[in-house]
Design brief:
Length: 611
């Protein structure tokens, strides 16, 4: 994508904002959600000093999303690399950092594979999600290792007053069918939600590689995927203010793909945990959370079992929020993380723990808002790690706020990088990052908008060293970015836009210095719009992503692309509706990972019951 094209996108984004001001009196819907992820405490999303995006249940159903990639693709700061369609390995990059630099939480519990280092989000059932909070920028000073590029916090569905069942069933291209059902209920004291979700698709040929590139095999067949998931969540509040909650989620996926060594995977993910909240006296609130997550994979060549990678993560967190004054909140807490690996590959070390203590001070002084955080982690393998963060906000007016921030972060090497036979290096050091950010955000009767400029430096990046044929701390990176977000409403059309410019540069010494980090698009733009006409709701999404490289050497380029999705729904009555979606309307042929196919033009129809 040329500079002229990038300038055109910026002009389009600005033009949308300027034109919307002409129709300020028409605004009827701009959500103002409360989030917890940015500071580990409740605050309105519009008041946070971090760059955040919230995807609500309303957004999920309005967009007719069927996967996490559907939900997150085109969100400011996020790039995907998908290897062949639904259910195939999908890696996520946030603000140009590595795929294992993003912390994924589910109802406050850490997810992710201790061997690979990232969470396989392609398996997560969107029908069981209530909302998602996305926080961009380092958060290690609050959450410890992994939160280098940001945090994605997934909240499962919960119940409310009265018994309410819901149901959906749909089908479409590539022999795809899916269905879900939930039952929720509650009263002033207690609530619950039970859910089940499933999908099956025949898929398409995931890889068009050769014996020497891509998937290193020739398997021109359809590569299917099926998934079944279930969740449960319940809570109760006692007379003395004690609040307890328990949750459980399990998902099983079976994915076929093209590969010379393995070409089928059975992947299961599970999260279970509980939270207790209690206030001994008015200024002090305690929260205790404990949980366990599993990510297990069995890998096959056709029907022959080849390898197994099972990982377990145990987490315990004790947090204390103390209101010093009405304008000051002190948060003090401790976290415990234990990782364990069980695999057919012989890892020389199979477990480790990480203890962390943290403190945060939030205060408001006239037009100023400040947030300071400091954390010390004691890692069993790497010893002491200290991270910190500082953010400042200044309200120019009641509608416009300036922000500035600095944060540091670290990422401990994965078990694969340390101990995988023939590949690992037990002498690796943690990756270290520092990030600075400037921003401005505004809200009014016609729009919510923000503009953020940031720079991140990462030292001791882990990469494969060809001289030793093992992992090594040989890379450095400097990442610069600009993000613009706008949510508004014009003449009844709800419009959400994201615009990202990214400069992820390899700063290592050697021939690759100055190269672009692979699989990150340097420009991306998304505009999503919808409107209701009586009993009909129509919508469209345009996603434009610039060129990217597939390799560190920058020799294999992936072309830029533009993709258009259309959707519509008819409200049969207040409880029933039928939805239809056409994805990739113009049948664009594109790749986010070299040689791996993406869906062509396809459609999906859903019947939904929601009281």
């Amino acid at each position: 994508m040329s500079i002229n094209h990038a300038s055109s996108l910026l002009a389009l984004w600005l033009g949308t904002g300027l034109s919307s001001s002409l129709w300020a009196e028409e605004v009827g819907y701009l959500e103002k959600p409360v989030i917890v992820t940015a500071s580990r405490t409740d605050q309105a999303a519009e008041d946070t000093l971090a760059s955040v995006t919230v995807i609500t249940r309303t957004d999920i159903e309005r967009q007719q999303a069927r996967s996490m990639q559907d939900l997150l693709q085109g969100i400011a700061g996020i790039n995907f690399a998908n290897t062949g369609g639904p259910g195939k390995l999908t890696t996520l990059f946030m603000r140009g950092t590595e795929s294992d630099h993003v912390l994924v939480l589910v109802d406050g519990i850490r997810m992710g594979s201790a061997t690979a280092g990232f969470t396989e989000i392609q398996n997560f059932p969107v029908e069981l999600i209530d909302h998602i909070e996305i926080v961009r920028g380092p958060r290690s000073s609050l959450y410890g290792p992994e939160a280098v590029g940001g945090v994605i916090h997934i909240f499962t569905r919960k119940g409310g007053k009265g018994i309410k069942p819901s149901f959906s069933f749909g089908g479409g291209s590539y022999g795809t069918i899916s269905g879900s059902g939930t039952l929720s209920g509650g009263n002033e004291r207690g609530w619950f939600n039970l859910g089940i979700s499933g999908s099956d698709t025949s898929g398409f040929n995931s890889c068009k590689g050769s014996l020497s590139a891509g998937c290193f095999t020739l398997e021109p067949d359809k590569d299917g995927y099926r998934n079944i998931s279930g969740s449960a969540r319940a809570g109760y509040r006692f007379d003395n203010g004690l609040d307890i909650e328990a949750r459980f989620l399990h998902t099983d996926g079976h994915s076929e793909y093209d590969g010379s060594f393995v070409n089928r995977t059975k992947l299961s993910q599970q999260v279970m945990g509980g939270t207790v909240r209690y206030s001994p006296f008015e200024p002090w609130r305690m929260t205790l959370t404990a949980g366990r997550s599993h990510e297990n994979s069995d890998n096959f060549k056709e029907k022959i079992f080849m390898t197994r990678f099972n990982t377990r993560r145990d987490t315990i967190s004790w947090q204390n929020d103390i209101a010093i004054t009405p304008n000051q909140l002190l948060t003090i807490g401790t976290d415990y993380l234990y990782d364990h690996v069980d695999s057919t590959s012989r890892f020389t070390t199979t477990s480790r723990y990480n203890w962390g203590i943290f403190a945060q001070h939030q205060l408001a002084l006239a037009a100023h808002k400040l947030q300071f955080s400091l954390r010390h982690d004691d890692n069993q393998q790497f010893g002491s790690q200290v991270t910190g963060g500082a953010s400042w906000g200044y309200s120019l007016t009641q509608q416009v706020r300036l922000t500035a921030g600095f944060g540091s972060a670290f990422k401990a090497p994965t078990f694969n990088e340390l101990y995988f036979p023939g590949f690992g290096n037990p002498n690796l050091k943690p990756e270290d990052a520092r990030s600075a950010e400037l921003g401005v955000k505004g809200q009014s009767g016609w729009a919510n908008w923000s503009l953020n400029l940031y720079e991140t430096w990462i030292d001791d990046l882990i990469a494969f060293d060809m001289s030793t044929f093992s992992s090594a701390n040989i890379d450095k990176a400097r990442i610069r970015g600009l993000e613009a977000l706008l949510n508004t409403e014009i003449k009844g059309w709800m419009i959400q836009t994201n615009l990202t410019f990214l400069d992820p540069e390899n700063r290592s010494n050697g021939v690759m210095r100055g190269n672009v980090l692979p699989r990150r698009s340097r420009q991306s733009f998304r505009i999503d719009t919808s409107r209701r006409f009586g009993d009909f709701i129509v919508g469209a999404m345009l996603l434009v992503e610039g060129k990217r490289y597939d390799d560190l050497a920058n020799k294999r380029m992936l072309d830029s692309y533009a993709k258009v999705d259309l959707r519509a729904e008819y409200l049969i009555n207040p409880q029933w509706r039928i939805q239809g979606r056409i994805e990739n309307l113009f049948d664009k042929d594109y790749e986010t990972a070299a040689f791996f196919n993406q869906p062509g033009r396809n459609f999906f129809v859903t019947l939904r019951y929601q009281p």
